[in-house]
Design brief:
six-stranded mixed β-sheet; 6 helices; 8 strands; alpha/beta; about 20% strand
Length: about 220
Amino acid sequence: MDYKTSDVLPGAGGADRYGPSAAPGPSPQDQLPATATAAVKIVIVGGFGVGKTTMVRAVSEIRPLTTEETMTQAGEGVDHVTGVERKTETTVAMDFGRISLNDRLVLYLFGTPGQERFWFLWHGLFEGALGAVVLVDTRRLEVSFDIIGRLEERGMPFVVAVNAFPDAQVHDLDELREALDLPDWVPLVDCDARSRASSRDVLLELTRYLHAMTLARSEAR
């Protein structure tokens, strides 16, 4: 999806054969900034219906790629939809977006499917990732336990973002940290996945955390 230049589709005949609109290339807003010098892969994880696709859509500066499909009866009794019964679509592969945090640093965002039956896709999505955002719905904290445990097993640095839902009870972050059994050093923040600014703040928190971990490792050598 990211190109600094737009090339004609290769092949015999070139543009004359395929026509000028056969390979239109990216729109200006989708092109990678010319000043970008570093790119970091970030994975956004969480249970079913916690707002992963919403966050990618809200924060991405390019047209996001989503793989949402209509939920069918085949998922009944398999997917845990308690608390999100009105949800009609679900991610079946991944979401993808991009955001430039400054002129040089670009984050590539990969949102994972929430249903446990699609977790086999995680291995490929986490390949090359430096960190993760765990989105949490306080109405259904239990769906986050296994996800956080999997990240800890992988040794993947992560921050936890508590997504704001209109009908969710507001909890103190210290109480949520205890309920999630999070170590003191793991960042825990409030967010609104519908808001570009709030989602960007979560990603900034993660990059600061990753930077602090890198400095700590360097000083320990």
